[in-house]
Design brief:
Helix content is 6%, strand content 55%. The chain has 431 residues and is mainly β. The protein has one domain (11-430): Outer membrane protein transport protein (OMPP1/FadL/TodX) (Porin), CATH 2.40.160.60. It has a 14-stranded antiparallel barrel with strand order 1-3-4-5-6-7-8-11-12-14-15-16-17-19. Strand 16 (372-382) and strand 17 (387-398) form a beta hairpin. It is elongated.
């Protein structure tokens, strides 16, 4: 095929490339990330059936045999989430700190080979929920919840024939788990007994190992894909720290006693990522337009989160067993993509229904987002035969969740509301 001459790069593409160097904030989904890269973000994560870019390493490794030569893909997200809690005791919001959850994928298929290899780094879960109000009414249930995990992926694919292929590989997860809440305590000094609050925080460097399998079919004008990601138990040990609130306001002898009592200890945290099965079909009514529908099942009912510590020095242990009441979820994602003649531009859009596994008695402040409707748009620009830029945007509209048992008064009702916007940029190279 004769290569196209380089095109002039429009200003929006240059801005998108520069934007890729900016930091990324917390992702819009507390329960796992379905969107990796600008193109997938712009189509609400519906890509398992096509998977026609190096992110197939994550979406469907079996599709890697459809990519020629050596290809590279890099991207970053920038998310703007808002989480609020309201009750008769007062309102509060989540403090979202800036993070960097990048994605980098590479694929290699020798000329005319029936096999391909791939590798990648991404963040399948990037959750850091910290309620910023010191007197957050539900702080005794949970004030901080963290699972910031990177996945290192190594996969291979094999073409059974010209249309069917299989793939699979290993997924190593590593990162930080954390959980924090508040407790009431007291100490007795020369002046009598003094009451105060103690913030507890357990953090651990954790890791776990899983594997992925995929199948892919490439027909004339349509195709099918399915991928299964195994459950992963992520576990690690770390510190259990106590912070006595307003310690300086207590008498000196009470301060000394509190420092001895609330010394740093050790804890072990475990969080399960559920196994997920995603299947999809794409169809091209004509060559310039492609439609895809994906469904994804996540088995949250079998995924728990636990914590164990040295002997507790204040109150009961962390009450994170609520997650045992989470439900399985079935997500539906629709993506559409069309070429704008020979301009090098592709426009995309998407819609998704992403149910929440948490509800009823399973709601807790560390994971309090309801079912989400996701609306997405995106664009790609192919500069030449070598490089393509991607830009995606999605808006996540979450249902409100109402729960009791979050405050010291067990009958008090707390309402959690959330919404988020996600921006994603990326670039793809073919060598």
């Amino acid at each position: 095929m004769r290569s196209r001459p380089p095109r002039h790069i429009p200003l929006p593409v240059l801005l998108a490339a520069a934007y890729a160097l900016a930091p990324a904030a917390l992702h819009a989904d507390l329960y796992g990330r379905a969107q990796h890269g600008g193109r997938a973000t712009g189509q609400a994560g519906a890509l398992v059936a096509r998977a026609d870019e190096p992110s197939a390493v994550a979406y469907n490794p079996a599709a890697l045999v459809r990519l020629d030569g050596f290809q590279l893909q890099a991207g970053l997200d920038f998310d703007v989430p808002t989480d609020d809690a309201a009750s008769a005791s007062g309102d509060s919001s989540v403090e979202h700190s800036i993070q960097f959850p990048p994605a980098l994928y590479a694929s290699w298929r020798p000329q005319a080979a029936r096999w391909a290899l791939g590798a990648g780094i991404d963040s399948p879960t990037w959750r850091l929920t910290e309620w910023d109000n010191a007197l957050f009414a539900a702080r005794f249930a949970a004030r901080r919840s963290e699972a910031t995990l990177f996945a290192f992926r190594a996969v291979a694919a094999w073409a059974i024939d010209d249309r069917w292929s299989l793939g699979g590989g290993l997924r190593y997860l590593t990162g930080t788990l954390g959980y924090g809440d508040a407790r009431r305590a007291s100490e007795t000094g020369a002046g009598g007994s003094f009451d105060f609050e103690v913030d507890r925080l357990a953090e651990a460097s954790a890791d776990g190992l899983g594997f992925d399998l995929g199948v892919h079919f490439a027909g004339e004008g349509w195709g099918f894909g399915a991928a299964w990601a195994s459950a992963v138990e992520v576990e690690g040990s770390g510190d259990l720290t106590y912070t006595v609130r307003d310690l300086g306001g207590l008498p000196a002898d009470v301060q000394a006693a509190a420092r001895v009592r609330f010394r740093t200890g050790r804890s072990t945290l475990t969080e399960d990522l559920p196994d997920r099965l995603t299947a999809g079909v794409w169809y091209a009514p004509y060559a310039q337009l492609r439609l895809e529908v994906d469904v994804a099942l996540a088995r949250w009912s079998g995924a728990s989160a636990t914590a164990s510590h040295e002997p507790e020095v204040v109150g009961p242990g962390f009450a994170i067993a609520r997650r045992d009441g989470w439900d399985d979820t079935l997500s539906i994602r629709l993506g559409v993509e069309g070429d704008l003649a020979e301009s090098g531009w592709r426009l995309g859009g998407g819609f998704a229904l992403e149910p929440s596994p948490a509800g009823g008695a399973a709601v807790e402040p560390g994971a309090a987002r309801g079912d989400a409707l996701v609306y997405a748009v995106g664009a790609s620009y192919r500069v030449n035969e070598t490089i393509t830029f991607d830009l995606g945007y999605s808006f996540h509209d979450f249902d409100a969740l109402e729960a009791t048992g979050q405050e010291e008064d067990p009958a008090a009702r707390t309402t959690f509301t959330s919404r988020a916007q996600a921006f994603a940029v990326g670039a793809r190279w073919t060598f």
